[in-house]
Amino acid sequence: MTTGRWRRLDDAAAAPILDLTDVDEVTTTLLAPPAEFFGVRRRVVDQFTLLSANRAQLARSVNWGPLDGLLTSVVPPTGRIDTTGHLPPEVSVLLPISTLPKRALVGFNLSGPGDTAAHLMPYSTSVAIQGNVVALLAAGIGLPPSAPVRRVIDAISRFRPGKFSGNYPRLAPSKGRRPLSLGTLHTYLGQAAELWVPEAALRQWSVLVKPAQEVLMTALDEPFDALCSAGTLLLATGELWRDPDGPDNPTADEVEGHLAAFVSWVAELRAAGPDAEPVLSTVAEYGRRWEALAAVRLDPYQPSLIKMTEERRAILCRRPPPPSRTTPGWWWRRPARALALTNPVALVDLDPGGPGSYHVSIGTDDSSIEISHPAVLDLYDREIERIYVEDVQHNREVYAYYTTDVRRPSRARLSVGLSLSPDVSRVTVALLVLMALAVGLAALPVRLGPDAVAVITIPSSFAATILLTRERSSLAAWVLGPAKTALLALLVALAVLSGLRAVGWHRPADAVAPTPISPTASPTP
User: Quick one: 299 and 283 in the same domain?
Assistant: First the structure.
């Protein structure tokens, strides 16, 4: 750790700035705050907007309280600076913004207090501070990680799934629910990390790390993901050569020694009981997510607001997850879900960001789409019975709730149903009914005059108009997709039946002319 230092601006009359961006104890304390600093991060506000069928925008703002108490207690006084006295009017610090999934950032913007400039720290800085967080938590229970263990912890944080799925898409599992084969790991470690080891050694390593993997996944309590470096520890071995304090080209024996030390450390944590659960869950979470840190300048004696916007992949499903038996009204909601041909929903990930208050809202960018039936699910897509909501606002265009209860779930998903506005859905349903009647009449074995044929084919022109009309957004097109598919099928069926009638198919019996009988013909004996 380097101590804080004065850094003056180019203007000699400018106020001095306390630069604490190198003092990682401040950021570590904010990520794992003791009880006296729980109220420093006061409020987190998440606003989700569904832009299209593929994109959702997250606008996140984090309200921080005054940091003077934390800075004076964490940053040690030195000969050049005394933090126990009056702090400068402006300090430069690293503040955690959000725990993000390990994926490339799209449309990411960051702003500091008063819309001043804020800079996202490099991923390597986040990896180092995440390792400090784990070391701080482990030291608190008397089990600090050794140097080899710390290298494995940093390797777990450093690995990103895109290194695998982006460079070797054919080897990546489709849904990530099945473990990677030894042949796949052998190819990845050899080509990506130049760690060529025999498959027999990989099999031995796999047996070695299996108990630690099971402990970490149990502590995380999330669905299995094959590209999670905490659940597949051999993926992290390909990152050991990038450790600045480790060897540039570690040998197979050195890698095995690091893995053995890490497995022993995890076993000690497991034996420590409930006190070690925060350590295990933090290590496991850093195998899937990373801490986004912002370098900002702020007044240590005033509250501050950090804003972030990001585009994410929209998670849409044709049917919502089935309600659990503890959900009110589950006995009629399950049959209704089974009978419904489509009941589309949108899912967004919730990250309350600490013990402060949490506000979340979700809406769409298309006025023809409405939201309904909100529900909070766990990461296994099971509806959570109690989410400790204290206030809620719900209309056809937005759903929002507010909570300050510390018992709320730390990780969850918000599910909202998507439907068309009444002015669009009524017309679509009416045309579906008319087209179904037209197809039914065309298929009946009855004589139809030209006027009747013209009448039953009138709805087809309106159906064709709807099919050719471009929706305002791809989200509306996705929601309307099943209805348009049904209209297209009915339109094709009506065209086929009309053609068959024109060639004489399905002619009624009374329309067939009887065979004339000659009066001179003798009866057949």
Answer: no
